[in-house]
Write a structure and sequence with these properties.
There is one protein chain. This protein has 209 residues and is of the alpha/beta class. The protein folds into 2 domains: 1-33, no CATH class; 43-198, 3-Deoxy-D-manno-octulosonic-acid transferase, N-terminal domain (Rossmann fold, 3-Layer(aba) Sandwich). Helix content is 45%, strand content 19%. It contains 10 helices and 7 strands. The chain has helices at residues 2-18, 22-32, 53-58, 60-69, 81-91, 107-116, 131-138, 155-159, 162-169, 180-188; strands at 44-50, 73-78, 97-101, 118-125, 142-148, 174-177, 196-198. The chain has a 7-stranded parallel beta sheet with strand order 3-2-1-4-5-6-7, with helices on both faces. Helix 10 (180-188) links the parallel strand 6 (174-177) and strand 7. Helix 6 (107-116) runs parallel beside helix 7. The protein is globular.
């Protein structure tokens, strides 16, 4: 896959660059070298991926709904450090919820996670499009995007990547978008019309089936 070949090419240059950026290097290393002992080996999980504090906070009702409706454990991954800390503060005392830093779409780390646990659903909050995560989890369970949005600023950039997004979107079972405009845009980028729904902002009263 071109995406992973490009990542492999960039990695050596990235780490050389990061040597001179201690904070950014620490950010990357914390995601590449994590303790996965919190995961319950062999058990079923619903994986929820959020970007930052905002997505963690707005997902609270979704997480509560999933916890009350499904028997699976929950894995929450977060991109930012502040989002990770908020998630830990919210859910660290809940034995059914495990929290990790998102491993920057690294194919080997995602493989490792998927060898440890059985993922029945991956829920992407807002427009968190990570090719390795989506492709690999879709072979195990369903991938659903909730509260999806595509801003005026990001839409032209996404249009240039339609060649990458169209085959990727085939692995997403359902797109729950914030508005009709977001719905139209995601379809124009390659999502199947029958898989896309306008559910409104912060509306998590949806079926995963």
């Amino acid at each position: 896959m071109f995406y992973n070949l490009l990542r492999a090419f960039i990695y050596p240059f990235l780490f050389v660059f990061l040597i001179f950026k201690p904070k950014k290097l620490a950010f990357v290393l914390k995601r590449f070298f994590q303790d996965f002992s919190c995961l319950k080996k062999g058990e079923k999980y619903i994986w929820i991926h959020c970007s930052s504090v905002g997505e963690i906070n707005l997902s609270d009702s979704l997480i509560k709904k999933i916890e009350s409706t499904y028997k699976e454990n929950l894995l929450i991954t977060v991109f930012t450090d502040t989002g990770f800390e908020i998630a830990k503060n919210k859910y660290s005392n809940n034995s059914r919820i495990d929290i990790l830093r998102f491993p920057l779409d690294d194919i080997f780390i995602i493989k490792r996670i998927l060898r440890l646990i059985n993922v029945s659903y991956l829920i992407l909050v807002e427009t968190e499009i990570w090719p390795n995560l989506i492709n690999m989890v879709s072979k195990k369970g369903k991938v659903i995007l909730v509260n999806g949005r595509i801003s005026n600023k990001s839409y032209p950039r996404y249009k240039k990547l339609t060649w990458l997004l169209k085959p990727l979107f085939k692995n997403i079972s359902k797109f729950c978008m914030q508005s009709d405009i977001d719905q139209e845009r995601i379809i124009s980028l390659g999502a199947k019309k029958e898989d896309v729904f306008t559910t409104g902002n912060l509306k998590f009263d949806i079926s995963f089936e």
